[in-house]
Write a structure and sequence with these properties.
This protein is of the alpha+beta class. The protein has helices spanning 18-31, 36-58, 65-82, 98-115, 125-137, 147-157, 185-188, 210-217, 272-288, 305-312, 358-368, 436-446, 466-474, 480-486, 488-491, and strands spanning 143-145, 163-165, 168-171, 176-180, 196-200, 203-204, 224-230, 238-243, 245-247, 252-257, 261-266, 292-296, 321-327, 332-336, 347-351, 373-376, 384-390, 396-405, 421-422, 456-459, 503-506. The strands form 6 sheets. It has a 6-stranded mixed β-sheet with strand order 10-11-12-15-16-19, with helices on both faces. Strand 13 and strand 14 (332-336) form a beta hairpin. Helix 3 (65-82) packs across helix 5 (125-137).
Amino acid sequence: MLAALFLALAAASSGGAARPASASGLAAVLYAQQPAARVIDAQQAATVEQAFDLLMDEFVHPLGSAALLQAAWSQLEQEAAQHNAPSPDLAPVLTDDRDADLAQFRAATLAYLNQVPNRPADFVPAHALVRGMVAFVNEGHTSFLNPKEYQDYLAWSRGELKYGGIGAHVQGPGLLIGEVFSNTPAARAGLRAGDAILGINGAATAALPLAEAVRLLRGPEGTTVELLIGRRGLPTPIAVTMRREQIAPDAVASRLIGDDLGYIRLRSFPEQSVADAVERAMATFEDQGVRGLILDLRGNSGGRLDVGVRLLSHFLPPGTRVYETVDRGARQQTRVAVSRSAPVFPLAVLVDNGTASMGEIFAAAVQEQGVATVVGSTTEGNVAGGKMFPLDDGSALQVTVLEIQSSAGKRLNGVGVVPDETVNVDLTTALPGDDVVLERAIAVLNGDVPGRTAAGTYTVLEGDTLKAIAERFYGQREAWPRLYVANRDAVGGDPDALTVGTRLSIPP
């Protein structure tokens, strides 16, 4: 789930703009000799200023200081009420003069912090203010992480994320279980995909936000959690008690389907060892002589761009466009595939509304370049480039620094990727154990779907080019990369110089 927050260019451990450094310095100068509470207040004010400067200087689109800070103050008012803390005074007068607005806001923040010396432990005014700025920006790759969340992010980026929980992936709306991890408390308790969580520890979940539900499901290892489960076909809910265990879901899982199809589940793109694992699985499948590969990106909510490009380079011809970026200064860059060994089997890619960020870039690239059939439901539409900035109090702010378009220059953010084969799944009506999306992908690779043929062969004739052959079999010359990837060894380095008599594989 944590991966849903991130499409990181890098997990920056230091750095950021010059202004944030001056903010922490200011706190030290003002309060170095003051009581501990005043020092903490100054640190909070400095954290707010640091986040403000990062958003003003780094966000992909210029922001107005008045609207940004007004949103921060409104969030402080809201969270203070939620925690039964004193309400802040009226918001400071803001005029869109950045320096003047910040000075006014700093004074108002310090005044409020001094006004409320004994705050609830779970109420951090500085974090409320930063959350308000993030809410105003309203961009999927701009997010605030408190110190605990930031440490979880760092563990995720190293491929080391572990937590106490039950071992089930929960999705909204309705708090439905989308997946149960094997050998976990949820699996042993008999929970299934499609089950609805109606209650947690005696409290109804009807109005519970997904993030809060996940927080309640997780907890220290060895502690128990009681769930009320609704299941299709049963007249009354089921009460289930589980003891939490350490959960460390694998980013990559692979297996054979039957004896001739390879299957790889890729949950995220956090770091390079994930690509290593996928490459090992593909090499094993080639040794086993599989005739098709299914890459499951359902629920894959992103990760590092460089990891995604590395894996895409196995399926796209060298130099093929993977995605395009536009930064704050309207500078454009195109990222292309590099030369890597290519699998010789047809590819199907599975997606759903939980596929986001790098997962969407991957699906769009293989679809647009004609090297795979994309199966499932329309993806999330949450695609941009974010950079993580640590803040001085141990929290962190991820800021959207790039817009990203598909390999064909199409907008993905807010749109998503529409599959070639649409299979919408209703978890509340699906039969336990059925995976209709996977079944459709198997049918595609078997040639059992009307309009899509199984892999065949073709012998090159005089005057043939890959583009001409692509037009003959697929109805469009632009699908030639699909043929190139499937026949890279036979074609060689020049896709337009085919040798008469060469036998080519024609993937579906």
